[in-house]
Design goal:
The complex is a heterodimer of chains A (about 500) and B (about 375). Chain A is of the alpha+beta class and about 500 residues long. Chain A is built from 20 helices and ten strands. In chain A, the strands form three sheets. Chain A has a five-stranded mixed beta sheet with strand order 6-7-8-9-10, with helices on one face. A three-stranded mixed beta sheet of chain A has the order 1-3-2. Classes of the chains: A alpha+beta (about 500), B alpha/beta (about 375). At the A-B interface, helix 2, helix 3, helix 6, strand 4 and strand 5 of A face helix 1, strand 2 and strand 3 of B.
């Protein structure tokens, strides 16, 4: 790794000037040059060369190197959400590429600093990752490579069991469990029409008896955890009978998972924003005449939707441009929405000029789900020819299923909600009063993949050391998968016995 | 240059090797690798080694795309085999191709194998170590400082940092600690035990295509493995039906012939080869013979045993005989051989005989032949 050569340094100053001029607001940004091997290494480690050792990074590296060697992919840059922002440029990029990439990087840097979902991330990420690396290496020295590795395997297998919004919750662990207040217990009374009949219909002795019973029941089923916990990792860190080093490793994996969450939540916006700015800065300011062809080639490659693929760069940049245009022309609000004349709608222009201001606001407070939910319009959908596809089981071919706006939006939002992962909660940490762990998969119409679910269950069991269960839905039946350390069991349960949320 | 990822990458490769080793039997019994050589890449499909997660099942099969086309238009084939819609218990729906060289594969195979009864023999067995200066290092002892490279580095640095003035009539280049370059060396080891492998294959008419395939596959792996493990090994190839002749490697693995079977013809040729090229005082000798065991006559079998007993066995470290089961063959040779040379009776210990009823048993047979330390 090396600092920028003089020539690029000059370009950096120039482009940073443009970025500031457009109102982008970012932390100090440092560029470094790396060759393709270093770049592949960085990408495999999620941007942090000091991360803890694990073979899964090696697997990623193998994939990237192969794909680079065969010319299938090339990583032009990597940006790290850190203070200062660190960006890596590929040495072999042409000058035009470097300028484009720098402009792109400033877009990301602005997004990292200003988007609300990034507000809780650790800005000393490079230090954090290095510290994690040191701690895990120390454990390896102390307890042996195999032992630590197999525990990390296990942690990786459950590292998606966190709450994407967890970092924004202020619910502290102490106040989470409400005290049972005997005076507030309500006993169900039978209906009566005449007041004088009450003591016969609802005898006071009976009511008192019922009240005591309810209080007794409440004591019995005092919930643990008090609320269903989507942050399963936190629950395990707190309550699983782990050794200290194991607890620390699990905590490290959890912290890193939370660090990467906002990037998953804002993929479309983040890339769209950065692409919007590289295109704006390059085409209006930084590009020389001789670079037009190379720029067009690079840019169109970045936002290509060839082969019907969904490209976050493309959707993001187009949606930002669409918003800018609509707010420039005033195409929003009830007047616009209630207008039924297509021609009038199309030529609607109030000359508000609020577009730029609006997109800066959007980049601040939205994430991918809210972004698309709010701003994707039927017109936008039609213009970009979106469709939903589905696998036809008879022909085993993917087919275009629908071009209906509602369905497309629903599908898109579903894919993005909870980062496209099933929502799983700990609902009982003392199941059947035997210290067993009971998880609940909140079924939303798509079943869990059983093969991997069973394997994951065994990872969980190794953490919890007592039998673990997960309740899910298979073929419209409530089903509980259990693993007790030796054997997997599956059983259907009645709706009355199921946890329903 | 050293990258930190190399350690993790090496660990990943190690895990893959472990996976391959588990299913080695399957890969070995495949004939399609025959004809490839050491550096050739072999693609091995491995069940994905991704760690399991709670994730949505395949029944989703849905997504978002963009482009032209009407509803119901096909976008391309799904990745599942037709109709297997139920989420079953079968693992490994995701298959990952792993490229590894044939040499590596052979090495994995042979981690627990070795040439049996190998002895230090021949004038090549003087194992010697020699230092060879092959490269440049950033650190080293003072005595090995390479001045030319060091000053070159210093010059590079000064030019890059702008402190070098080419117009100066007497430019000064001062190396710093980080510019220093040292010679580095490698220790080379000379090969030790000289060994000759003689592969003999029965190509007579009684051997069906499947039998020939088995024999070819097994000898291919033995050949590949030995080549990858023992440098300076010599291999000879003999095919025989009613007559025997020596062929080159390519012919050996591709030849198709038919005719009667007179095994003694091959043994005679082996004996001649040994006499001419491989004096037993200097060579470890390993003949491998593959046949369906259907010899022309009992007389010839007796002749074979005489040649074995008097000529080949005394000179060989081990004589390996592998018999495939054929539709027509009687398999008599295997029985006769084991009756004649009983175990534990001096010279009989030098015979290893195995039966290879089907492709799956190729690996076991190889293991029996090359059981280290026997």
């Amino acid at each position: 790794m090396s600092d920028l050569p003089k020539e690029l340094r000059a370009f950096q100053d120039e482009i940073e000037g443009y970025a500031v001029g457009y109102g982008l607001d970012f932390l100090t940004t440092v560029f470094e040059m790396v060759d393709f091997e270093q770049m592949n290494q960085l990408a495999s480690y999620g941007g942090f060369p000091t991360r803890y050792p694990h073979w899964s990074f090696g697997m990623e590296y193998e994939k990237l190197s192969k794909s680079y060697a065969y010319g299938l992919s090339k990583i032009y840059e990597m940006v790290i959400n850190n203070d200062p922002v660190v960006a890596y440029l590929l040495k072999s990029n042409s000058i035009m590429d470097q300028k484009l990439v720098m402009a792109h990087v400033y877009g990301h840097a602005d997004f990292f600093k200003n988007n609300y979902y990034f507000s809780q991330t650790n800005r000393k990420a490079i230090d954090m990752m290095a510290n994690h690396g040191v701690r895990i290496r120390r454990y390896i020295e102390k307890f042996g490579y195999d032992r630590v590795e197999s525990f990390i395997d296990l942690c990786h297998s459950i590292d998606n069991l966190i709450d994407p919004h967890g970092r924004f919750m202020v619910r502290s662990r102490d106040e989470a469990s409400p005290d049972h207040d005997p005076s507030r217990v309500k006993v169900h009374k039978l209906k009566f029409n005449r007041g004088y009949m009450e003591k016969y219909i609802n005898p006071p002795e009976f009511l008192e008896e019922q009240r005591k019973k309810i209080i007794e029941d409440q004591e019995k089923v005092r919930r643990f955890p008090p609320h269903p916990a989507q942050d399963v990792l936190e629950f395990l860190v707190d309550y699983a009978p782990l050794e200290n080093w194991e607890r620390d490793v699990l905590d490290i994996i959890r912290e890193e998972a939370y660090y990467f969450i906002p990037q998953g939540q804002t993929k479309i916006m983040n890339e769209g924003w950065a692409s919007y700015w590289h295109s704006t800065i390059m085409t209006r300011k930084a590009m020389k005449d001789s670079e037009v062809i190379d720029y067009a080639d690079h840019h169109s490659g970045t936002v290509s939707m060839a082969g019907g693929r969904f490209n976050p760069y493309k959707i993001g940049i187009e949606l930002f441009r669409n918003i800018e245009e609509r707010w420039d022309k005033g195409q929003f609000g009830s007047d616009y929405d209630s207008c039924t004349d297509i021609a009038q709608k199309k030529n609607w222009d109030l000359k508000l000029g609020k577009g730029r201001e609006k997109i800066f606001e959007v980049r601040k407070i939205y994430n991918d789900v809210t972004f698309l939910d709010e701003f994707m319009t039927p017109e936008f959908c039609a213009e970009h020819k979106f469709f939903t596809f589905q696998l036809n089981p008879k022909s085993n071919e993917y087919e275009i299923a629908s071009r209906e706006f509602q369905k497309i939006k629903q599908q898109l939002l579903f894919q993005l909600t909870n980062l496209g992962r099933p929502r799983i909660f700990v609902v009982d940490g003392n199941y059947q009063n035997r210290g067993e762990l009971y998880l609940w998969h909140q079924y939303e119409g798509v079943e869990l993949k059983l093969t991997t679910a069973k394997e994951t269950l065994s990872s969980l069991q190794k953490c919890w050391r007592r039998p673990v269960h997960i309740q899910t839905m298979i073929d419209d039946h409530y089903r509980v998968l259990s693993f007790d350390g030796q054997a997997l069991a599956e059983r259907n349960i009645a709706k009355e016995d199921a946890y329903l949320g | 240059m050293y990258l930190k990822i190399n350690t993790d990458h090496a660990r990943f490769r190690q895990i893959i090797r472990g996976r391959i080793k588990k299913d080695l039997r399957k890969y070995i019994s495949k004939g399609e690798m025959i004809g490839r050589k050491g550096k050739h890449l072999v693609s091995i499909p491995l069940p994905s080694i991704d760690l399991p997660h709670f994730e949505f099942g395949d029944n989703r099969g849905q997504g978002i795309g963009a482009g032209d086309g009407s509803e119901g238009q096909s976008l391309g084939p799904g990745d599942r085999d037709g109709g297997a819609g139920q989420a079953g218990n079968l693992p490994g729906q995701h298959v990952q191709e792993v490229d590894i060289t044939l040499e590596e594969l052979a090495a994995i195979m042979g981690e627990e194998l070795g040439l049996p009864k190998i002895l230090p023999k021949g004038n090549k067995n003087l194992s010697s170590f020699r230092d060879k200066y092959t490269g440049i290092h950033n650190i080293g002892p003072r005595a090995l400082l390479n001045f030319k490279r060091t000053y070159k580095e210093a010059l590079k640095r000064q030019i890059a940092s702008g402190t070098f003035n080419p117009d100066d009539p007497d430019p000064v280049v001062i190396p710093q600690k980080r510019d220093e370059r040292y010679l580095s060396w490698k220790v080379k080891q000379q090969e030790n035990n000289a060994a000759a492998i003689i592969l003999i294959m029965d190509v007579s008419g009684s051997m069906g295509d499947e039998q020939k395939e088995i024999v070819r596959t097994e000898s291919f792996w033995i050949d590949t493995w030995l080549r990858s493990q023992y440098k300076g090994i010599e291999t000879r190839y003999i095919v025989h039906d009613a007559t025997a002749r020596e062929v080159d490697r390519e012919t050996f693995f591709s030849t198709r012939e038919s005719g009667g079977t007179i095994i003694s013809s091959a043994y005679q040729l082996v004996d001649e080869l040994i006499q001419r090229h491989y004096p037993p005082s200097e060579w470890n000798i390993y003949p491998f013979h593959f046949s369906d065991g259907d010899n022309w006559s009992a007389d010839d079998t007796q002749k074979c045993f005489e040649i074995l007993e008097n000529k080949i066995l005394p000179k060989s470290n081990v004589f390996c005989y592998g018999q495939v089961e054929s539709l027509y063959g009687s398999g008599q040779f295997y029985k006769d051989l084991n009756e004649r040379f009983a175990k534990g009776a001096g010279i009989g210990d030098r015979i290893i005989s195995t039966r290879i009823p089907n492709k799956e048993s190729i690996y076991d047979s190889i293991k029996e032949f090359l059981n280290k330390g026997l």
